[in-house]
Amino acid sequence: MNVLALSDAKVGSAGVVERVDLPDEVSHYLAHLGFLPGTSVEILRRAPAGDPRVYRIDGVEVGLRNETAKHIFLRVISDTADIPPTATIEAA
Amino acid sequence: MSCHVTAVAEPIEEKIPTPPGATPRMRTVALIGPPNCGKSTLFNRLTGMRQKVANYPGVTVEHHSGRMKSIGRNDLTLIDLPGIYSLATYSEDARVAVEVLTGKMPGVPKPDCVLLVLDATHLNRQLMLAAPVFSIGLPTLVLLNMSDQLEARGGKIDTLALARELGHPVALISAAQGKGLDAIPDFLLRAGSKLDDGLRPVQLPVLQSAASCRSWATQVTARTKYQTPAASLWTRRLDSLLLHRVFGPLFFLVVVIAVFQVVFTLGQPLSDSLGNLLTNAGAKAAMFLPDNWLRALLRDGLWNGVQSVLVFLPQILLLFLFIGILEDSGYLARAALIADRVMRSIGLNGKAFIPLLSAYACAVPAIMATRTIENKRERIATILIAPFMTCSARLPIYTLIIAAFIPNQRFLGGLLGLRALLMLGLYVIGFLAALITAKLLNSSVMKASHAPFILELPQYRWPTVTSLGLRLYDRGKLFLKKAGTIILGVTFLVWVLSVLPIHGGQFSELTSSVIGHLGHWIEPVLRPLGFNWKIGIGLLSSIVAREVIVGTLGTLYGMDPATHQLGLQVALRHDITLGGAIALVVFFAFAMQCTSTLIIVRRETNSWKLPALQFCYMTTVAYVAALVVNQVISRLF
Question: Are B214 and B19 in contact, with CB atoms under 8 Å apart?
Fold first, then answer.
């Protein structure tokens, strides 16, 4: 499967969160924003300075710096962001 | 799976007559919900103008409380808990919430029941908070807020089915529009009289695991046929414009400049008219009093001092109006996103931008709003630099000096004025001092931290008149209270010190009074800055609060026989040089002349070390900068 760090995924592409490799405290917080394995995520846009970038996760827009996003991995599903933004795939 | 949910379906809508003479022993209701769920709006709806703690700008950082008078339950106190995603005690906010809910917070009674507010448009995610809240075991009403947006964007919720799944009553409301709120008094009545709501307890997921809470929430919403609303098209379109690579930062700058231009070009005439009104009223009232010490005290001691401060209310309210619009519309989060790159270069993140922007109104709420910064070092750095931002308490002395000393020249076809330019310059030097201080802190005392920057971008919304009005009312009340207590007290004290000691039944001349001696005593230290003894007294009195200096100077010049016929501006022009005047505003740009801020820093950091350091550091910077400015200007002109 095509697994990428979130920071490497192109703007406009979409996928499903594969895993989050961050300290407990951070991943707990991210989990409550929707960054959990199985949730669909879309790379929406960059901030004017290029970083942070805005991700749409589970219907919510969240800004993350690349230094954080590089520890979150996604399975890319689409390069054109045309999957339904709310589709949720149950964790295995 | 551990999170299997069982519920017995029973009607919850059956009408139960109010039991006669039911005297519920309920006292306290807790309001809880994730950030951005509209909880504060609901709190305002339920308590109206009767909140106990002032509602600071920025995020809710303390549990405010108020009587639920708006729904006819004056006997109940509503506690507003901080907005949190979970009860896992990683953050201070969550710890506070848990302590209040379990009755372990000293001084706060254990709540009798809970209102859980969730954003109906993001139910999958928001329901994750429901499980840990239910597990505390208090009667809980689930309020699905933003029903208007849910409907407008084609979402659907079966509240009855959801109530059965959750084992707790559920109501769909719109706090912004005041819809569906009847469910709250109904619930409170049932909870108070311990009536069975026909719902059975359900089995909850493993609370410590976010993944299990999440999968429980997803299953619940799936079984109740929840339909997620479509993404707001408007928000996306606006963002592609307002976060555009070129247009985004440009718009950001325009907003910041527009705010300052309006505050001064619209606020100034308003302040002037209010000033004239107050002077005339004072003069008229004085005619009814006999010419004795009481009249002198009332008119020269009290009225003048308070009036000099009151005239700044229009400008301060305008500033708060702008911050309110930015925050309520959702643009403030975009501003944080745009600002993150710059903030990062000084070792802070975009979130510090919101407290720092609030610090342009007042450092006190700004320092309290730093609680949203999870990283302790970044938080302390933000607390240390926030008072450098030009707060509204500096505006009185800025406007006074600028109006007195700077000609009203305009450039660029009248678009920019010399006065506005100097004002902008004062904002800029404060900001630069903050940047440099942050940089120093980052490279020496506090190493760069690796706390992640996570920023939720809410949907754009029209700010409501009610919410803005409430905010302005709060700010205005707070400012007037300050003017009415601290400032009045200080101006009165200054007046007393300026007429004592009494010789043979006569007040002292100003120069031979206690304060005259004090001012003369510190004059040698201030002379190189271009300040005289009157300014010295002003500086001493304004350690309480910056705006006090204007009242003090008004009193001092008003009582000096040489200047009491002149307006304050003219009197100042006669008494100090241009160099001294500019040095004075530069001194105020840097100095920590605010007891409230020092006390808040002490409270937030739980030690006197930081406020003491902050006071010494800022005063030193202010002294040196004012010295340089006066020496340079007096050599140039």
Answer: no
CB proximity list for B464: less than 8 A, separation 6 or greater? B41, B176, B328
- Asked if residue B16 has pLDDT above 60, the reply is no
At B466 the pLDDT is 79
Mean pLDDT value across chain B: 79
Residue B71, amino acid: I
- pLDDT for the residue numbered B509: 65
The phi and psi torsions of B110 (rounded to 5 degrees) equal -65, 130
**What is the per-residue pLDDT for B529?**
92
Q: What is the 3-state secondary structure (H, E, C) of B366-379?
A: HHHHHHHCCCHHHH
Phi, psi of A46 (to 5 degrees): -105, 155
- Tell whether the model's pLDDT for residue B510 goes beyond 60: yes
Nearest Cα residue to A5 out of A60, A61, A68:
A68
DSSP symbol at A35? -
Q: Assess whether pLDDT exceeds 90 at residue B630.
A: yes
φ/ψ of residue A64, rounded to 5: -135, 140
In b/e form, how buried is each residue of B604-627, taking b as 16+ CB within 10 angstroms?
bbeeeebbeebbeebbebbbebbb
Contact yes or no for B124 and A54 at CB 8 A: no
Which pLDDT value is given to residue B538?
A: 85
Q: Say if residues B352 and B378 touch (Cβ distance below 8 Å).
A: yes
Residue B278, pLDDT score: 84
- Cα torsion B378, B382, B385, B390 to 10°: value is 160
- Looking at residues B511-524, what average pLDDT do you find? 81
Look at A61 and B456 and tell me if their CB atoms are within 8 Å.
yes
pLDDT value of residue B317: 78
Average pLDDT of chain A is 82
Could you please report the per-residue DSSP string of B493-523? HHHHHHHPSPBTTBPPPGGGSHHHHHHHHHH
For residue B5, pLDDT beyond 50: no
Which is more confidently placed, B596 or B218? B218
Q: Which two tokens stand for residue B478?
A: 């707070």
Residue A1's pLDDT band (cuts 50, 70, 90): low
Q: How confident is the model at residue B52 (pLDDT cuts 50, 70, 90)?
A: low
**% of chain A at pLDDT higher than 70:** 84
3-state secondary structure B256-322: HHHHHHHHHHCHHHHHHHHHHHHHHHHHHHHHCCCCCHHHHHHHHHHHHHHHHHHCCHHHHHHHHHH
* CA dist., res. B223 & res. B219, Å (int): 6
Contacts with A32 from chain B: Cβ below 8 Å: 34, 85-86, 125, 128-129, 210
Could you tell me which of B543, B527, B550 has the C-alpha nearest to residue B627? B527
State the DSSP code for B334.
Answer: H
CA distances from B258 to B244, B252, B264, B319, B353 (A): 20, 10, 10, 11, 18
Q: Which residues contact B68 (CB under 8 A, 6 or more apart)?
A: B29, B46, B47, B74, B76, B77, B78, B188
Convert the pLDDT of each residue in B274-324 to its tens digit.
878 887 888 888 888 877 777 777 776 777 667 766 766 776 677 778 777
Distance from the A83 Cα atom to the nearest Cα atom in chain B, whole angstroms? 13
Question: Among the residues of B387-463, which ranges form H helices?
Answer: 395-405, 418-443
Collapsing DSSP to helix, strand or coil, B145 comes out as strand
Strand segments, DSSP code E, in A1-92 are: 3-5, 14-20, 40-46, 53-57, 60-64, 72-78
Of the partner residues A28, A54, A63, the one whose CB lies closest to the CB of residue B210: A28
Please give the Cα distance from A45 to B338 (Å, whole number).
12
Checking phi first, is residue B36 left (phi over 0); if not, alpha (psi -120 to 50) or beta?
Answer: left
Distance in angstroms (rounded) separating the CA atoms of residues B611 and B616: 9
Q: Does B240 touch chain A (CB under 8 A)?
A: yes
Nearest CA of chain A to the CA of B86: how many Å?
A: 7
Contact B239 A63 (CB under 8 A): no
Backbone angles phi, psi at B593, to 5 degrees: -95, 65
